[in-house]
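Lecture notes, unit on protein representations.

Consider one protein chain, 456 amino acids long.
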Amino acid sequence: MSPDELVYLGILAASIPVGILFRYLSPQAKKGAALSLGLLMTIGTCGIHTLHSLCTVLGTWLIIRVNWRKAPPLSLGWTFLYLFFFRMVMWFGLPAPPPFANAIQLLLTLKLVSLAYEVQSYHFEKKKEVSSFSKSPVIGRLSHEPSLYDILSYSYCYVGIMTGPFFRYQTYVDWLEQTDPLALPCKVPCLSKLKLVPVYAALFMGVNFLFPLSYVRTDDFLEHNFFFRFFYMVAVFFVFRMRFYSAWCGAEAGCITAGLGCYPKGAESKPGGGPTVQYSPEPGALVEYDFRTIQNIDCYNTDFCVKVRHGMRYWNMTVQWWLHQYIYSSAPFRAYALRAGWTMLVSAYWHGLHAGYYLSFLTIPVCIAAELSMESCVRARLGAEGQKVFDWVHWFLKMRAYDYMCMGFVLLNASDTLHYWSSIYFLIHVVAFVCIAAGRLMGGGKKERTREEREK
């Protein structure tokens, strides 16, 4: 493991016992301590580069104060433009930020855009209350506009500051205002998250040792037969998954010990978004809690769901909620494939400027279009047994599609990505376009796309 990875590991490991201590603090003490610890971690790992995140926070605060009505698009523009500057600082003669600063900047961008939407919603609902003389029914609405101190506290809260998960400002406020944090579940859900982490970590290190990514870039790699080259992407994606399964399960455990994102099951929380219904248990009733709000990964469904479009829902789940809520829903297109493509383009930009991100993310809409065509023109015409066989084949192709796209994500630059894809004859692209063409010829695709748009 690299020194940076060891630092990440140390931060993850330390956040778990530290979270327990925060359950004993009062709301104001919790707020100040979380801010202080987050700033200490940021300054300790980023040094002078902490100024990047601070500028982003102050710029968003100024936008909200000056024009809350247009704060969402303005904050999105501001934070995304700053991301571009942040990644190109070398052009201006400034030192390159460390990976820790990049991780903080990514999550901060999500937080501040979401905050701008929450503040706008607060003001709109407040105006409705004044005109209708009734309390707004909006779930998870802010009780007041956050101050600069509130925004700084939320932005630099130590929980998940580098590793995620993303959580809304209202989730943060609910965490601060918990009436009896010590009564909330901790041990069982935390152990449930951690029980497989040693397995994931061991598999990550073992398979990574046997199939190093660097070997793909060598001339020797091309001397192997097609099946070896094809299988290599399966091993690389497996390593990729084990790495993030370990990190995200550890990050969720840190949230759980602190009590962040803990809501009654009856609130029907969504990852990233929080409660979706008003829930008031009867006095004295036994209340069950969950941590769905901060769930960032569903390892089982990531591996075993059938469809490409469903696979995204179980991976980096809080970020997927953010993308759907703020990007997909407001996309400048109506067609599902185009809206998905627009969302993937924004996601690629958020991840970075490397061409591999764009090549990978923009392959997703192609794969989605292919599976929609096959489902409507083939699966819909099969019997029950035939559909089972279809689903197994579909699952196999879904996993190979993600293997294929992962190579762009980890190789990063266009030449290495295209060099690998060409070594396996762009097989996934070929299969996808053949499926799309077959679907068009058989008159399929339209009905399934319409259904999928309703689902979204």
